[in-house]
Amino acid sequence: MVKSRKTPDRASVPDAWVAELLGAAFERIREALPPAEWSGLRLSQLRVLSSVPEDGLSVTELADRVRMTKQAAGQFVDALVDLGLLAVQPRAGDRRVRWVRRTAEGDALVGRLSDRFAALEASWAQAVGERRYATFRRVLGELGRTVPDGADPGPGQPSVSP
């Protein structure tokens, strides 16, 4: 008989899988930032929205930045345009390129969430100690880097160096 690893609080078990630990951390994020404050967006949509710099970028550059296909990035962009958070226009020098920028509403949402994430991270740093939290954040950045080496991480996105 195969035992299930699922228990009510697997994150507190010494041999918990890293996915369970990260899942517990995400649950803490969801508790601290209710979906109503996200305008009903998924975390993946917020990641795309927050990855658009102030001066904009092409859909292809956005896809590279968030490490997804150009087609998937285009679908995210279209959905965020429909919600009024992004705007798309042809690039001045090459009208074939879709140039993506955040709208004022998109900027406001990213600003609010950046403030909330900063407060959450400050509380985590206080709970475990500044030094341990800085190490945790640096390691997470190394393991899950979403910005290619040398690329600008975008507003509100910390750069991670090895």
Automatic annotation (TrEMBL):
<keyword id="KW-0805">Transcription regulation</keyword>
<dbReference type="InterPro" id="IPR039422">
    <property type="entry name" value="MarR/SlyA-like"/>
</dbReference>
<dbReference type="InterPro" id="IPR023187">
    <property type="entry name" value="Tscrpt_reg_MarR-type_CS"/>
</dbReference>
<keyword id="KW-0238">DNA-binding</keyword>
<dbReference type="InterPro" id="IPR036388">
    <property type="entry name" value="WH-like_DNA-bd_sf"/>
</dbReference>
<dbReference type="GO" id="GO:0003700">
    <property type="term" value="F:DNA-binding transcription factor activity"/>
</dbReference>
<dbReference type="InterPro" id="IPR036390">
    <property type="entry name" value="WH_DNA-bd_sf"/>
</dbReference>
<keyword id="KW-0804">Transcription</keyword>
<feature type="domain" description="HTH marR-type">
    <location>
        <begin position="1"/>
        <end position="145"/>
    </location>
</feature>
<dbReference type="GO" id="GO:0003677">
    <property type="term" value="F:DNA binding"/>
</dbReference>
<dbReference type="InterPro" id="IPR000835">
    <property type="entry name" value="HTH_MarR-typ"/>
</dbReference>
<dbReference type="Pfam" id="PF12802">
    <property type="entry name" value="MarR_2"/>
</dbReference>
<protein>
    <submittedName>
        <fullName>DNA-binding MarR family transcriptional regulator</fullName>
    </submittedName>
</protein>
<dbReference type="GO" id="GO:0006950">
    <property type="term" value="P:response to stress"/>
</dbReference>
